[in-house]
Design goal:
Helix content: 25-40%
Structural class: alpha+beta
Oligomer: single chain
Length: 170
């Protein structure tokens, strides 16, 4: 399986989400302004990417495109939660856990929409707070000499998906 676009951890916020995220980082830093807004946003996007890697979920809705090898049975899409799936000549299904499934003949290019929330404001508060906290930490400790606050993983842990085995389509 090969990601064409939208792989986990590759987060780019839209303008409205950038403004809200920047405000959250400023609040975390207790600053009305940040010297370098672009750098702060880069740290927010990096923190969101790390949150996606940690939780095993795409956090903010985006389109994902993958190329998948043919399989006679159902194959799980590589990220969750899946909201919608499109593709020519393939059977599709989305289970109650947000796992997307596809089945088809030949190499399949599958386009799907995945994400927990529609935007920054719709993210659950613990995820937003953990991202803002990590981004503020990265902003203030650019040398990387201080450990990441333990509260970051504590805030994200309830959203973490741990799989001990590959999912099986019923």
């Amino acid at each position: 399986m090969t990601f064409v676009t939208g792989e986990p951890g590759a987060v780019t916020l839209g303008a409205a989400d950038r403004a809200l995220a920047l405000a959250a980082v400023r609040a975390e830093l207790r600053a009305a302004t940040v010297d370098d807004d672009a750098l702060a946003i880069a740290f927010v996007e990096a923190a969101l990417g790390l949150a996606e890697q940690f939780t095993g979920r795409v956090l903010i809705v985006r389109e994902v495109v993958v190329d998948m090898a043919a399989s006679p049975g159902w194959r799980a899409l590589p990220v969750v939660p899946v909201r919608a799936i499109a593709g020519d000549g393939i059977a599709v299904d989305i289970d109650a856990d947000g796992v997307g499934w596809v089945k088809g003949v030949g190499v399949m290019r599958v386009t799907f929409t995945a994400g927990l929330a529609s935007g920054w404001a719709a993210l659950p508060a613990p995820l937003r707070q953990g991202v803002a906290m990590l981004a503020a930490h990265l902003f203030t400790d650019r040398a990387g000499s201080a450990p990441v606050p333990a509260a970051v993983s504590a805030l994200w842990r309830p959203f973490r998906t741990v799989r001990l085995a590959r999912p099986v389509h019923a």
